[in-house]
Amino acid sequence: MTRTDGFEDDEFWTEFYDFLFSEQRYSQAEELLDSSPLLAFTPGARVLDLCCGPGVFTVPLARRGHHVTGVDRSPAMLERAREFCGAAGAKARFVRTDALHHVEPEAYDVVLNMFTSFGYFEEHAANMRVLRNMRACLEPGGRLLLDVAGKELLARKVVPPKVVHRGGDLLVQTDTVLDDWARLRSDWVLVRGDRVRRASLVWFVYSAVELRAMAEEAGFEEVEIFGGFDGRPYDQDAERLILRASRQG
Ligand SMILES: C[S@@+](CC[C@H](N)C(=O)[O-])C[C@H]1O[C@@H](n2cnc3c(N)ncnc32)[C@H](O)[C@@H]1O
């Protein structure tokens, strides 16, 4: 039995790949880019896809004519992203680095952070720093779009453990609330043939109010919250917590 801890472990993203990045997610990304008012960027926009993973959004954005940079700290994820990009006949730039340190001053019109790729650092100050880095990467007038599973939504489905079958694999995911709902730990057990693989992830979960306050503290303006990519409000029918904000000046 092997065990993985934390988002920084390259093996986690590879081992659990099929469950995190299903074919359905790739096709859903295409659909969202065709239909979402929140993802309708000006033609040829310079887009930073921060924590891009295997390029689920990076590549289709590049194919739609945007100038996209995908940043991730996992070599395995970037390798998949590059392969996907090549196979799609698209052009994108990929950079291996840590979101904690990635700043390209005023180089982008859009910063994207998709599929709960925020709140990974143990210290609140580090997560704030990532937000400040995102702002620094934007040209004045540029926009951040950050998509997470909001705390209000997670509260509805944290228990009981989730069991997923895919192919011959079985995944059991158990979530535990930590630190008065500040953070969540997700314990994953993957049974693949005779092998059992365990992983444990801890991350900050945010309510809409908390995330808005953090964005404002980081210097963002025109902060808006949505409950889905169709632009719906963040209310009882919300599916995601999506923050859109702009850098002015
Ligand atoms: C949940 S996946 C999301 C990937 C992609 N945004 C998507 O929509 O499919 C999170 C990604 O964040 C990356 N990551 C984790 N910590 C990071 C860090 N400190 N700096 C940069 N990337 C990081 C992981 O390698 C992983 O590819």
From TrEMBL:
CDD domains in the record: AdoMet_MTases
Keyword check for Signal: no
Listed GO MF terms: methyltransferase activity
Record keywords, A-Z: Methyltransferase, S-adenosyl-L-methionine, Transferase
Entry keyword annotation includes S-adenosyl-L-methionine: yes
Signal peptide: none
Domain Methyltransferase: residue ranges: 47-142
Record GO biological process: methylation
A Pfam family the protein falls into: Methyltransf_25
Highest taxon of source: Bacteria
InterPro entries named in the record: Methyltransf_25 (IPR041698), SAM-dependent_MTases_sf (IPR029063)
Name of the protein in its database record: SAM-dependent methyltransferase
Species name: Streptomyces syringium
